[in-house]
Design brief:
Number of strands: 18
Bound molecules: CIS-heme D hydroxychlorin gamma-spirolactone 17R, 18S
Radius of gyration: 30 Å
Shape: globular
Strand content: 15-25%
Distance between the termini: 69 Å
CATH class of the largest domain: Mainly Beta
């Protein structure tokens, strides 16, 4: 049998060398230039040029492979070790580079150098994540989202490692492993993935009344965001700011997306997870790629000890908010994400956030959850990133000078010079020394017995959950009811369901009754005696996403389905109107190659109908001629496309598609716009106005 060498297509057109042909005069430099114009020679990790990257070394073409083949062994060995352990929580994430810029000097509150000058931009790396799912899980799980920001300040890295929900499930770090074990796939069966809808989660939270406030947020639309670009972020804990005069203030951190917050509806979330499991990752990547940079404003709630003492809830309790109506938010700066990572693994996967990374002018509070976090992150990173030198990985390195006397350790990349690796020393007068301006902890006075005790001031578990529920608009309340019913509907144990219903009754009789009704469990709630009788707090409209949603199409995506005989002039006009609103357009047709337009011309579209269900868009348009209308109405994916857009409460603009509308059973309402043409002009005002309002919420009762 004749031996053939498989050589890949060479884009340079030059014939690949089949064996190294080092000329007698051949220097390494020459060798490294032989691959082709502008192409470097492929080498091993030792820099040895590789002559054949297609075939391993064998004795004869069909003979045994030789152990001697170091090219094969090195390549496979490296591959075998390509994965590092995923994060125990927040394993699935997406990240971007950008900058933070304050609007004004915050010197009155903090001496943090990056917050002094409105002209100063501080580089940041931001990672968004889901919490429960594994690294390869889908984006639209019902879950809390991580919102972690690494500020590379000139005084070192400050990590604001927050979430998109301002409270947390537990009050003490010692409960975190229990919480996470309860929500993760059950240990015997290994399911469900990325889902809280199972017995162990609800068992745990039903026995931990402190969690019910956060659980109610997690059942709200906040847990199924439309995009990482359209969600708020929160530092959750109370932190401290310390100014140059060593005065300390408490602070809560908030991030506000400038294009407003938005969520999907649950049925969409379920369908998006099938249609595009990377929906959020893709959305963030594409937005930045197109130059539509995500932006968030930083807002602070700053208050002193006297104010903290007067508040109804303990500011050290991470299961509580301070309503904006009580301490207003002061907007102090802007975060802009303007660059995608160059390499997902090197940056997004290897980045290590840590709440203990803090700079002079900032400090911690005694929140017992925060205190536990100060330990956990570095500890987990030691094993996840393989040792104590992970701060040398480029994404984790500070961008300011860094000098100390720490040495050695696995994966030490630096080559520290000199004989001195200790301090004080007299042998290296140029070596690093401590400085008076360095980080100094605020000298808060502490005293007391050593106890394992939860403060009484942490024990009202229901009042703020009630306030949250009562602050929602009717559609948002309905979604919370449905989410509770869905999740509890998946819980097998009746006693767990009864316990949760008992908590819901304590939040709101209305919420408890509606969920019980949907479960067919009226009158079966356990009676749960609250430790502190809940009170009716005034509603906080700021807690509702819908109540403060801006009328905008900015950053949204409109899908335009084209049927045979559509008029390209209409398409151009609609596209222009949408683009003017700073939204994106995707054209769709049964075939990605396109459909004939009214002039019988066929232009390729962006997506094929089967690959572009309407769940991927914020608003939809259908354009077709009479023949196209008939064809589309005979195609199940097209009927489904329109039907789903309607059921998901989207704004729909239609031109020339009467048969399809009848087939999809669409009832006209304020969000169904029948586009009108007079001559060549098409009126788009109504559509744009309706689409800017977002979803047609009053359609929900009818679908
Ligand atoms: Fe985390 N958390 N957490 N967490 N957390 C981690 O650190 C932990 C908590 C948050 O994109 C881990 O490097 C404990 C609250 C985000 O890389 C780990 C407690 C908030 C991220 C860890 C909490 C967060 C993490 C896993 C209770 C919002 C992802 C991998 C005391 C304020 C950061 C890692 C990224 C990641 C521990 C509670 C946010 C295990 C012990 C509250 C956004 O160290």
């Amino acid at each position: 049998m004749c031996a053939t060498r498989s050589v890949p297509a060479n884009p340079t057109g030059k014939k690949s060398r089949s064996s190294p042909s080092v000329s007698s005069s051949g220097s390494t430099a020459e060798l490294h230039q032989q691959a082709g114009a502008g192409q470097p020679v492929l080498t091993t990790n030792q820099g040895i040029p590789v002559s054949d990257n297609q075939n391993s070394l064998r004795v004869g073409a069909r003979g045994p492979t030789l152990l001697e083949d170091f090219v094969l062994r090195e390549k496979i060995t490296h591959f075998d070790h390509e994965r590092i352990p995923e994060r125990i929580v927040h394993a699935r994430g997406s990240a971007a580079h950008g900058y933070f810029q304050p609007y004004k000097s915050l010197a009155k509150w903090t001496r943090a150098a990056f917050l002094q000058d409105p002209k100063k931009q501080t580089p940041v790396f931001v990672r968004f994540s889901t919490v429960a799912g594994e690294r390869g899980s889908f984006d639209l799980a019902r879950d809390v989202r991580g919102f972690a920001v690494k500020f590379y300040t000139e005084e070192g890295n400050f990590d604001l490692v927050g979430n998109n929900i301002p409270v947390f499930f537990i009050q003490d770090a010692i409960k975190f492993p229990d919480l996470i074990h309860a929500v993760k796939p059950e240990p015997d069966r290994g399911f469900p993935q990325a889902a809280s809808a199972h017995d162990t989660f609800w068992d745990f939270v039903s026995l931990m009344p402190e969690s019910i406030h956060m659980v109610t947020w997690a059942m709200s639309d906040r847990a199924i965001p439309r995009s990482y670009r359209m969600m708020e972020g929160f530092g959750v804990h109370t932190f401290r700011l310390v100014n140059a005069a060593n005065e300390s203030f408490f602070v809560k951190f908030h991030w506000r997306p400038t294009i407003g917050s938005a969520s999907v509806v649950w049925d969409e979330a379920v369908k998006i997870n099938g249609a595009d499991p990377d929906f959020h990752r893709r959305d963030l990547w594409e937005a930045i790629d197109k130059g539509s940079f995500p932006e968030y404003e930083l807002a602070l709630q700053v208050f002193d000890q006297a104010t903290a003492d007067k508040l109804q809830f303990d500011v050290l309790d991470p299961t509580k908010i301070i309503p904006e109506e009580i301490i207003p938010l002061e907007v102090v700066g802007k975060l802009v994400l303007n660059r995608n990572p160059d390499n997902f693994f090197a940056e997004t996967e290897q980045v290590a956030f840590c709440p203990a990374n803090i700079v002079p002018g900032l400090d911690f509070s005694n929140d017992p959850l925060l205190q536990g976090r100060l330990f956990s992150y570095l500890d987990t990173q030691l094993s996840r990133l393989g040792g104590p030198n992970f701060n040398q990985i480029p994404i984790n390195q500070p961008k300011c000078p860094m000098h100390n006397l720490q040495r050695d350790g696995i994966m030490q990349m630096g080559v520290p010079k000199g004989r001195v690796a200790y301090e004080p020393n007299s042998l290296d007068p140029q070596g690093p020394r401590e400085s008076a301006g360095g980080f100094a902890s605020f000298g808060a006075k502490e005293s007391g017995e050593r106890v394992r005790l939860r403060p009484e001031s942490f024990s009202d578990h229901y009042s703020q959950a009630r306030q949250f529920f009562n602050s929602m608009t009717p559609p948002e309340q309905n979604h919370i009811v449905s989410a509770y019913a869905f999740e509890l509907g998946k819980v097998e144990s009746v006693q767990i369901r009864r316990r949760v219903l008992g908590h819901l009754d304590n939040i709101s009789a209305d919420l408890g009754a509606k969920v019980a009704d949907l479960l067919g469990m009226q009158g079966q709630a356990d009676a749960i005696a609250p430790r502190v009788t809940p009170v009716d707090l005034p509603p906080s409209p700021a807690l509702s996403i819908l109540a403060k949603a801006p009328a905008t199409l900015k950053g949204r995506k409109v899908g335009i389905l084209l049927g045979e005989g559509y008029d390209p002039a209409d398409l151009a006009a609609i596209r222009a109107a949408i683009v003017k609103e700073q939204a994106d357009v995707a054209t769709i047709a049964a075939k990605v190659g396109g459909v004939p337009d009214v002039n019988d011309e066929v232009l390729a579209v962006d997506m094929a109908l089967k690959a572009a269900p309407s769940v991927l868009f914020d608003a939809v348009v259908i354009l077709a001629g009479p023949a196209g209308d008939v064809v589309l109405s005979g195609q199940a994916p097209a009927v489904e496309w329109l039907k789903n857009a309607f059921v998901h409460l989207k704004c729909i603009a239609l031109l020339g598609v009467e048969t399809l509308v009848t087939k999809a059973n669409i009832k006209p309402d304020a969000g169904v716009i029948l586009l009108k043409k007079s001559g060549k002009t098409i009126s788009l005002k109504d559509f744009i106005e309706a689409a800017k309002k977002g979803r047609v919420w009053n359609r929900e009762d009818n679908v």
